[in-house]
Amino acid sequence: MIRKYLTSVRRGLVLAALALVSWLDLLLELVGFCILCVGLVFAYTLALEGTRPRAALTRRLAGRWCGIEVESPYRPAPPAPERERDGWYRDGNSLFKRSWFLRWTKRFEWISDDPATGRDLGWQLWNPFAGLVLVPAVLLTGPVALRVYGRWTRWWLGPRPARSGDGWIKTRLKALGFQLGLVGLSVAQLAMAVPTLLMLVGLVPLFPTLVIAGRSVTDTLRREAKNWTGVRIDRPYLPEPPFPVPRADGMYQRRRQLYDTPWWPARLDRYRWVIGDRATWRDMAAAVVNTVVLALLAVPTAVLVFFGFQGLLALWVWRPIARWTDTAWSTTHWFSMIGLPEATTHWQALLLTPVAVAAFVAGLVATPQLARLGAQFAKLLLGPTEASRLEQRVARIKQTRTDASVAQAAEMRRIERDLHDGVQSRLVAMGMKLGAVEALIDSDPAEAKRLAAELRQTSSETLTELRLLVRGIHPPVLSERGLSDAVRAMALDSPLRASVNGVVPRLEQPAEACAYFAVSELLGNAAKHGEARRVSIELGYDDGLLRIEVTDDGKGGANAARGSGIRGIERRLGVFDGTFALTSPLGGPTKAIMEIPCQLDPDASSPRTSTSSGTA
Q1: What EC number(s) does this enzyme carry (predicted)?
Q2: pTM
Q3: Does residue 163 form part of some domain?
Q4: Which has the closest alpha carbon to 586: 109, 254, 61?
Q5: Residues 433 and 498 both lie in one domain
Q6: 593-616 pLDDT, tens per residue?
């Protein structure tokens, strides 16, 4: 018994000493974060990865010494980037000649987005205090203190089940953080707008460069407004001018002026582009207006929350510490700013506690609504106008026209090849057999009958093959019953356990065919490459926009750079000015969201084409 107690004390002292090292890890990560702020992403990534071995050692010791097994909670590391056939590395629409930048960016996203990383940081902050408490606890209770410390370690460093949602306080604290984040981005936008305007007075050639740099900050505000509040703010900018193309004589023409190099024409086109774009001046006006309005929405709530939190600290943390240490650094006069007396006793602190709690709660109550209101106000100036929407649509149509022509030509070649190699060959063989039947019908009737039976079988097979070919061009169920029933029929034929939710009305037939074959491609990828067992398909149509969400429980890791299927979907949707968003982390799940602008089918009122029709 004594030996067991001494062993527990020795192990507790070792764990306490190891806990103090956590502050050194936290300091290392703080240095890495400071280096990250100047653009060196790899430093913060190395700092986070360098501290994980200490956490892994604590997990092993908790299982060996405390009897509490702690599993590793980290997500699997991302795979190394794969080079494409043309020698480039692709990430979305960006190409890289070498993989090091892409590799470090992926590792930074992997380790910073992992929830276990945040728990590691919290554990490193509070674990030294737990280590200091462990020393007297293990001297008093022995193995009991070790088991409590093991449970503490498992709570911080072990895997946790996914939570369905945040609590009331956490949700509103996050909303307050979103408000302050929008204010900070507006201030950054204003900081970029001021020198940009000064360039119009002095260095005019640098004006387009600063405008582009300012747009990156504004795009960050748009993106985070969508991520934080759900308010979508589209980019309103006119399409970038194309690079100058030389004439037949090698000169570059801009209006009536010829240039030997494309530098001046390109510079003048870009200057005219940013000057003539109304969104440039709307961004600068928004930098001033949004900063003021968002600050007016966020500052009162932040002041109330800070006042209430600081008041609670003053009443129940700083006041007792000042009383026990006989010092005068208590801040209970915090309440004198609103005309309330200073709290010197516990009873007075109890009377002032509801005031602090009321201020804290009052500041948090409306933060989600205020954050969304601020994002909606920012959308007024940062969102696109009808003119910019039309220009963007025209530019997108020009970009997708070539892809549509190439895809149509490839489809025509496929149909021609299938007809030539399949149906045409069978028809030629049937013609030859018919000639043989004519020659044998008088001299050898039995052989003629046998050939006629083979002809009947061949005609049946040809008809089946022709039906399959037609179904590949446009499924009959899609024409007769619409997209909802066609997708349900496809789900029944799929080897996966597929569920289809939602009903959409009859839409334009080209849009229905585009959506049908895109869903078919996603189901095929989930079964063939994703090793999925279940798949969920959500259909919806609202205000001229068809939305389809396909989610499977496969292994994830889908990437457009490693296959042509996803690129084919993007090209198919691009013809209809649609969008395709894919989320596929390693380990799954894979979620694909497709949005296609389309209109209702004006001929959908007939019983044959109605989805509520009794005909199949």
Answers
A1: 2.7.13.3
A2: 0.55
A3: no
A4: 109
A5: no
A6: 999 888 887 665 444 444 433 333
